[in-house]
Amino acid sequence: MTAATTTGPASSARPTGPAGPTGRGHQGPWVARIAVVTAAIVAAVVAHGNLLPVLGLVAALVAVLIAARPETAALVAVGLIFSNATVIAVHDHGIPGAVALLVPILLLVTAGYHVFAHRQPILIPRAALWMVAFLVVQMVGALLARDPATSVATVQTFLLEGVVLFLLLTNAVRGWRLVRLAAIVLVVVAGFLGTLSLFQEVTGADHQDFAGFSTMSNAVINRASGGGSARHAGPIGEQNRWAQSLAVTVPIAVALGWKDRSRAVRLLAKVSGVGIVVGIVLTYSRGSVVGLVLMVLIAVIVRWVRLRTALIVAGVAVGTLLVFAPTFANRATTVVTASSSVRSTTGGATAQDGSFANRSTEATAAIAVFLHHPVVGVGTGLFPTYFQDQARAQGADRIVGVDREAHSLYLGLAAETGLLGLVTFACFAGSLLTALGKVRRRYLTTDPDAAALATGFGLAIVTYLTTGLFLHFAYIRYFWLLAGLAAAMGMVNDAGTPAVLHPHPPKGRSHDVHSENPSPVADPDRHPRAGGDRRAPGAGRA
After folding, report:
1. How far is CA 398 from CA 350, 355, 387, 393, in A?
2. What gap in Å lies between CA 142 and CA 377, rounded to an integer?
3. How many domains does the chain have?
4. Using one digit for the tens of pLDDT, what is the confidence trace for 226-251?
5. Could you tell me which residues are beta bridge partners of residue 349?
6. What crossing angle do the helices spanning 409-443 and 126-144 adopt, rounded to 10°?
7. Are 187 and 252 in contact (CB under 8 A)?
8. What's the pLDDT tens digit per position in 172-228?
9. Residue range of the domain that includes 151
């Protein structure tokens, strides 16, 4: 296990929370709460199409729950981040900008509960060291940039929505039980938002955006053929980015849906998974499809997924899309044919999007900028200001005069942060995946549900990296939310975090001290009663 760096007295390193789920019966209350809240929201949306009244009621109930169980605050924060609720509240409903502080406050409540009430240490994942190095590279690049003010402002956003959010998450969502609950919240929220898009599509209620949580893009697929299909953009308002955000939750939903110890959670994850997939399809995003396919190929290569399983899933997916979503299937084939079927409307006129040609121009421009500034780049957030010169040099008159991004995570990082930025970011991602791989191997035999969730988070990171081939580094809080939860999963059983394993193995499982995975009794970090009972009062409660 890759140990985390901790600060605090040595005596505080003992696990004070529950040693993981102690039985199937303890999962019922949490699953019931999530199911009831979800059902209430769905009922309100179907009946009135307005989320605001029910969200007010839910907020009151959540406040009471947080007062009773401070750990709930972190789970609420996870839901708020993924649903983009605070941003929607400010921009769409005129709520004061101070509401944006709600997320860090909620995370601080839970983190403070761990550190002060339970005397657990402050956790600093090893991946955070690479994150700080990435921040330093950006700061140096900003100071050397031709427009330092703009670049420094972008670095400040990374500091708040990246570094601070990551560290708060890893200290608030600590231990197997909370990581698992956070994963459930993430999947349920994603599935619910995907289901809103399905409701819009089936009822034809394109004008109803459900208080901003299910918006429609102005891009239309196959408009020339008559009518066309509008692209759904979720709570973000950008269809490709929303598709990426949904895609990263797919492997987590699969992990919970097939391997979780609770039957109720498995059912909830499967239902949510359907909503997630439908949401992706309705964005008509080709990049998300390519990203998911590449993720599966990588998973097969590293033997995290069996080839036979991957082929069966791929066959079922293709068949389902051909039958129920032929427009999406036809659009996905344009990746191979290198043509675009996207059309957009501007002032009533119809024009070809030409996304392949545009992205080729953007990629060439990013490479040229990187070659001229190879060490620390031109400064974070400044590539669009260099794009115009490169576009003119290529004779791309169709997009001259328009500031464009690199439309690639890697080319964008190369242009704006140089080789040093690429290396530090790659090391950060590699550190996360290494820790998750160790957790997976450790529990593959003794606790397959824990191993599956580690696999799910690992493949979620891989999905972000593969979809990043076609999308630049924007809406970064979604990535750092995922990275923070992945780091928390990778630190399971590190100092100051509750252990994964049950105090007693479920029926049908055996712990052989001679097996590859050592017995929990032989490992004090994994078993709460090894060397004495170290459970805190109330340990074992769900």
Report:
1. 15, 12, 13, 13
2. 9
3. 1
4. 556 788 999 998 899 999 999 999 99
5. 346
6. 170
7. yes
8. 999 999 999 999 999 999 999 999 999 988 888 777 888 899 999 887 776 555 556
9. 5-19+28-215+241-341+404-501
